[in-house]
Amino acid sequence: MKKDCFLLVLDDEVNILNALKREFAGEPYGIFATADSEEALKVLKRENVKVVMSDQRMPDITGVEFLKKVKDLQPSTMRILFTGYADIHAAEEAINQGEVYRFVNKPWDSEELKRIVRDSIRRFDLSEENRNLSVLLAEKNRFLEKAKAELERMYKIQAEFTSTVSHELRTPLSAIKMAVDLILKGMVGELNEAQKKYLGMAKGNVDRLKRLIDDVLDLTKLESDIRQLAMGKADINQIVREVAESHQHVAEEKGLFLKTEFGVGLPEVVLNADKINQLLSNLISNAIKFTETGGVTVSSVFDADAKQVRICVRDTGHGISGEDLPELFQKFRQLGNAAERKAGGTGLGLAICKEIVSRHNGRIWAESETGKGSSFFVELPVS
Amino acid sequence: MTDKRKILLIDDEHDLVEMVREILTNCGYEVIAAYNGEEGLQKLESVSPDLIILDMNMPKMGGIAFYDCIYNQLEGKSRYPVLVLTARANLEQLFKDLNVDGFMTKPFEIDDLVNEVEMIIVKRSGGKPVARPVAAAKRKQKKILLIEDDATISGRLATAFVNADYIVDAAKSGASAFEMIVDGQPDLVLIKLGLVDIPGDVLAGKLKRIPKTSGIPMILYSGAVNLAVLRRLCEKTGLEGFVESSEPCILLKEAETLLARK
Known about the structure:
A: five-stranded parallel β-sheet, five-stranded mixed β-sheet, 10 helices, elongated, B: 12 strands
């Protein structure tokens, strides 16, 4: 039978060595028995030795000394001292100093000795496994650290790239915009109605492209900045009031109402006021954009059980169809009919909203009934 | 011809230069064009412009290098009024680095450019600061912009002002202040003296130099220096008020006094 691990025995008495060889012949591990400590150390270096057992009293080296050499060479090996009764003190001391794992008295009890060796091997295997696991864990950690650093680097590159590209796009765009605006303003001569109409289309699209560039930059900034946003405690109702107020005239111009319903007893929420402002502003201007009659209601409630503050932006617009709802918050998923496209969105507004909400550990979703209107909900945790 | 205001326009985009020249000439200005910083410096040998419109990214000599050449160390400002043209992406950095009279982000509206140019030239020739923006006048509540980089103090001040029925915007750095004032049109700005990125008095100096923001009352506050120092800083930068504390109730009182006076 091929044996892949070994018990190493050092004793100066050859008949003891022989007796031990016979004793362990039937065990699942092999045995090396020698009277020469140098040879024993060579075996230790060469073979997979899990347990070393040594006699204490030998002419050229004591067992404790030998086992110390073993420990220096292979610290994980289990070491057993094999002693006569007279050496009990040496054995105790060796155990106390951590040099040996067990000691065995001579003369030995055959079953007990085998049990001790088996126990030592199991112990060796366990600590080996433990060591392997921590090495693995450390490796995994290093890998994760590296992956995280790499991700941060990639995000940074992306942000820099986007910033450069948007800068480069803005330069020609500003020349186009200025040319179109110059002509439209009649600064280089009168325009007829058709010319005005088509140039107006060009202007609308130039302005849309400008917003798109701004939004792309905004979203990239948000995504690449994986550091925590600067947070502060704030009164949600105050932010809602402010954003609603700033959209009041746009709603009025379109003949829509824009009202607020404030929940009572709202606790302060830890948030980044600028971002939440931007979020609500996006939702409210969307609601106004897609509503022709009726209006928009912004409400806030505190769900004390769930420890959440919930804001709802509800409109009486034409609604969103069921199959479009899940796609709503993805980049460039503008919902497709021509009337909506005419509204001049960039397809990034809701993606930005989602990013903002997730950076607050919150949740955003929409509910809608075609023809009756849509509601957008934002839930922010109250810590 | 000679009484026309002169504008030196420095931008490497030929098309843009031609159009801006057309627009500003129509508005009654004399426009001298240069296509990079070096050319701009050459023009300055023979012309003394009332305003320099300066692009940032240019070959040979860029906007920042040009600005450094016309910067007067002694006075701590450029020798001519400067309106910077920039893409929005690096506005905060430019605001921090440069001490100029205005920023225009590309692409811009023609009317905005004309207004901005007019504002700077009127202000530089001793005219009155520009009237309050419409957005601010339409609001029922007064809006405060708080520039404070300590989150705890910022939170405490914001709460106090919100409780007193103000709308509060909070900026966490001096560099973001300019954009926030332009976007938010506050009725009053509170500036902490000991800001980390730009000292509060330097920030106030920048904002007071830019016509677009100079009309808004500003209060400088600090719990760390004495009244005499603050008073001197405020007089130097033309600030409306100063408070030697960052206690909410004291600042609130000063803000109310100042807004009532307006």
